[in-house]
Amino acid sequence: MSPKRSSRGNIPPFIVMDVMREANRLEANGDAVVHMEVGQPGTGAPAGVTNALHDIMKKDHMGYTDAFGIPALRYRIAQHYFETYGLDVAADNVVVTTGSSGAFVLSFLASFDLGDRVALASPGYPAYRNILIALGINVIDIQTDSSTNFQPTRPVLEQKLADIGGPIQGLIVASPSNPAGTMLTNDELCDLVAFCNRHSIRLISDEIYHGITYGEAAQTALAFGRDVVVINSFSKYFSMTGWRLGWMILPNNLIRSVECLGQNLFISPPTISQHAGMLAFDCKDELEANVARYSVNRELLLRELPRAGFNRLAPADGAFYIYADISELTNDSADFCHRMLAETGVAATPGTDFDLGRGHRFMRFSFSRSEAEIALATQLLINWQR
Prior knowledge:
Layout: H1 15-28, E1 34-35, H2 47-59, H3 71-85, E2 94-97, H4 99-111, E3 117-122, H5 126-134, E4 138-143, H6 154-164, E5 170-174, H7 186-198, E6 202-206, E7 229-233, E8 246-249, H8 255-265, H9 271-280, H10 284-304, E9 312-313, E10 321-325, H11 333-344, E11 346-347, E12 349-350, E13 362-366, H12 371-385
Parallel strand pairs: 1-11, 3-4, 3-5, 5-6, 6-7
Antiparallel strand pairs: 2-8, 7-8, 9-10, 10-13, 12-13
């Protein structure tokens, strides 16, 4: 008899990665593919990062760092909060992590016990749910829609708590969000922070798409309270997905427990990536040029996708996603995306990755590639639907 297999692995796949694998297979066979499935910038790390790393690698043997990261990087991240939001953040509260994924694991473990209940918006980033489930934490879905801009506002949260008839221990918010690219207003975010404080709910604010907005800039939850956990990353705005580098801002009562967890689970974040992260903050011109390109792509899709039959689109206030209600086209988004990739070469992600109950009638387009690629994709889709 074989040894047992843990039930912790009985979680859904990250479907976008399956779509990307199929798109890559088609490309390897010589087919042309436009990648609108995966949520990563179409550009690499800023030139100011890559050009300087060779000299740094000659001076640093790239051994382990402190579990919380290189002190100079922690100070630079703290400085970023003053420069961007006008907030004083102590470097002691900054934790450098192995991507935002490492930050989610550490913050969930430090904040919640087995059987605790944590609420999150649906649709939402699937890894929140799947990590929580693997850790034995109960997920409370808050179904959102266009009436609340796909965000879990305080009235929606209060109604959910009334429905389930009991307390929750945590709430995860993301503004801008994935997959809808929508944002909480400052008043709504302030309201949620205050509500969570009153009810001893740990609020975890995923701010990984900050810097990528198309109107009002995103505000950090730290502006409204210091008991929140803020998570960010170098993957999106800084265009450094494969470097696997993120950070957290922690309240004081979580610092030591997260440090002990980090020492044992990860030892330290990647050293070379931490050096790159320090350099990335000095590449603002190049990074803002990326955002300008996303803005052009966003306008292109909002204008052209209706011509291809995609008429019900979330507004995409930030990030680089368009979330489309395709219920007029199909009741099976997974099959629809599979056929679309096979017949047009345009790869996109079915909504079932983000919403277990209603995702079969939604899909997500990522518009982080070049303007030429996005323009090509729209034309292919228009021709496909004729």
